[in-house]
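Course assignment 3, question 2. Fill in each field.
Student: A.L.
Task: Predict the tertiary structure for the chain below.
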Amino acid sequence: MLTRLLVKNFLLIRRAELDFSPGLNVLTGETGTGKSLLLDALGLALGGRGKSDWIGSGGDDLLVEAVFRADRAAARLASSLGIAAAGEELILTRQIRRRGGSRCFVNGQRVLQRGLRRLGAQLVEIHGQREEERFRLPEVQRDLLDLFGDHREARRKVRDLYRELRTQQERVAEHDGRLKRLESEEEWIRFQLGEIEQLRPEEGELEALRERVRGGRRQRESEEWLELAETLLNGRDGAVLESAETLDARCSALPDEPPWDALRTEVHALRSAARDLHRSLQRLRRDAHEGASDLHAAEERLGQLEGLQRKHRKTVDEIIAVAGEMRTQLEELEAGSAMREELENKLGECRRALERAAARLRRLREKAADSLSTALAREIRGLGMKGCALRVAVEPLPGSREGNVALSGGTILGAKGSERVRFLVQTNPGAGYHPLGEIASGGEMARMALALRVVLGDRGRSLLTVFDEIDAGLGATAARAVARRLQGVARHRQVLLVSHLPGIAASADRHFRIGKAERAGRNWVEARPVEGAARVREIARMLSGDAGDRRAREHAEALLAGSG
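Answer field:
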């Protein structure tokens, strides 16, 4: 709901600030006073196109600010645009600068113009010849028919099954494409897998091998030392052990005296130590020799695994995982036909369920189209369009568009069903039916929209609805009918319009008079709410052209009393 509109320096509007009521809001005033400028200013705040030529002489910038109380859908969109919430309030601001450029803000945050336009479409619907591009779209007319018939559940069922069908189709296509690729790569996969399985690498094996090789090489170095030590100790003539034994044997020839006794003891100890050392060296060499063959096997295995890593440019653990994937791929090839059959069965079940749901939705739409056509025809006649006839046509979707699917019998179906809906209008008897968007008169277009809003009642979201040119060419009787219907629509949603007809003005919940005032030698547009005696005078002016005419004022008072 629009709560306030602030306009500054917009053509002849120096400053205007309007506070709106929840129901029917009407702008009136003499011809040429600038009533439509306020609707144009609102359009700017909603993201419409603007020009620097619209900047008035009161400054360098044009500013329009529209304050709305937003519903959940508008709040969600604002949040998706990154706009910080301010309770239920959304403040849409548009600034156009004389030096060039336009800036858009929501709740003080800078946004792109297209973002402002998207948000504006979630807050306001405007009906009139210039603003009916969206209203004339077949998909929008289909949504309106479904809103009238309350087809939410049937549409949701079709949408969900349609999405499931598309998912199943993608799965079948993905399965077929994958099998085709696997078949072309089968020989290569088997060769690579055979090479890996021949080595049978194990997780963590490479590091364990490297540690074994490092240990084995250290042991080999020890063995070389042991070999050298044994050679020096007992591996040649005159080695340490032989020399020690010779010395020990000849000690018996030494004198049996204290100094020599001590020497004999030391030589004997040397011989014993050399023998013990020799036995230790022999034992260690046997152990080292047994480990040498293990080192060779470990080095050979390590070389094979490192070569496998270089070839695949992956670690051993990654190669093991790749081998598992290859086995899975080969299993997939073997089970391909059975899997294809299972996917096709699921696809067929989904298709049949979708066909049933789409047929039910089509029947509901056809029934609702007859009821809506009858209801709209009745409303249109009551709005003074007696030569006009309207029918709601439910037709098959034309051709195959991207995203649509073909069902049995050549039926084309999208996420919202297998039909398009068109509102067809005959403006004069015998003129033939044409799409609603081809109506030339903005007033007729707005009254069509009003008839639709009356028929829809409280269905749908409660947006601000603007009816542009709705009273163009209306007589007194039709004007009263329009006024009654506007009041009915305003019970469910906020309505804003410009009117030249006193019967409509008298029906307003809030009435603004648009006039001109001279300031500093220039005429400026002013907008003021009128109540009580001021409102009686304004309606009297609309009746007779003279706000002071006694009979006109009495008539105005009667209109106000009858509109309550």
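Instructor remarks: The longest helix spans residues 258-312. The CA atoms of residues 173 and 493 lie 48 Å apart.
Grade: pending
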